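HOLO CASE FILE
Compound: manganese (II) ion
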Amino acid sequence: MEQNMNLEKADALKEEANECFKKQNYVKAITLYSNAIECNPTSAVLYANRSFAYLRTECFGYALEDASKAISLDKTYVKGYYRRAASYMALGKTKLALKDYETVFKARPNDKDAKLKFNECNKIVRQQAFERAIAVDTVKKSVAESINVDSMTIDGTYTGPHLVNGKVTLQFMQELMDAYKDQKKLHRKYAFQILLDVAELFKAQPSLIDVTIPEESKFTVCGDIHGQFYDLMNIFKLNGLPSIENPFLFNGDFVDRGSFSVECIFTLLGFKLLYPNHFFMARGNHESQTMNQMYGFEGEVKSKYSSQMAELFTEVYNWLPLCHCLNQRVLVMHGGLFSRDGVTLDDIRTTDRNRQPPEEGIMCELLWSDPQPMKGRSPSKRGVGIQFGPDVTTRFLEHNHLDYVIRSHEVKSDGYEEAHDGKCITVFSAPNYCDTMGNKGAFITMKGKDMKPHFTTYDAVPHPDVKPMAYANSMMSLFG
Ligand SMILES: [Mn+2]
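Model generated. Tokens follow.
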């Protein structure tokens, strides 16, 4: 009798959760599915549905766990394999995804969508195998070396901004941003020139950059931008344009998701060239090849320029610094802290970063980790990096004589969050993320004399009618 009551309750909770999911309120849906699972822990459907909601919130590690659980509860439940395939895809584990898509396709040979996904995934797996095969014998030649900017000509129909003797000026930056607001393009000659110059600049930088903020000066830290160019312009409207007197640090994830990633990245790289010692950029987990292939940046660069330029971006991103230390008191990284105690700033300084982010270790964790409210460490909800508790933060700060940590990487409804007793601050600067999350954006300002963080929050501004993920891999349409 009690069992039946629970089943009924589980069903009612599931219906309520499904409604929330439809309204794109994924966080509430996850809570309701979890409550339903408590009432009926043997339902494969509930786990598969929660897995889908986790996919939408980018908790790919949890999504994978739930999909696997659904399969273990009911090996004939096709949706479970579907969800697990999607989770594997999101984590870049394409071979494992293919196996699950094959199971789905075999179970439903007449399902058009199943066939499409299986074929798409198969194509990606074969493409990757091909790329690996050519990479084995050939010493990888730098794309930068094969580009000849001098040979590129500009014809009279081009009305956009011009570099002055090959250099970025303030006037160039103003004209560039105006051109972008009108949805115009920067000429490829100048785009390549900026990429080549900024690659040289980043190459000369260490993996951890020490920044000095004078007593009376203001310094601004921004979080994820994710291709939301019009919101980036709003940050400059609210906080002033970057300058020597108005220095900025952008803390990674400049691109992907939003469909104005090209506009964002050239604006940021332009300011880096204009103010190399007062404008800073750190690498995020989205400044990587696999993420760019799946979440839109590569497709956008190929559409607006060429695949050669997409390859050059991969080289430039490999040289982005991993971490910034402000006045020897505040450490800023995209993701978070480490799977072991005792990591020092020197360990970060000596990290060889010119590569794609590895699956573990200091570089991986700097880019991927998240804080958690519980003490200690746990596996990541994302399936990459770790989750670290307040005690981990405290020990890290004491060991390295720091005041607090700023990181980004997670959407927050207020645009920022102070966790771990104020010692671990999240800042996220993409308001209404993916046009759906309804969150505010935020940035942090501080004065050199006290390094106290001040928060400015703001709402999304309108953008032209190009949806987020417009250039993303078609497999990723699964996650909206
Ligand atoms: Mn991120």
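CASE NOTES: The chain has 17 helices and 14 strands. The mean pLDDT is 94.
CLOSED: yes
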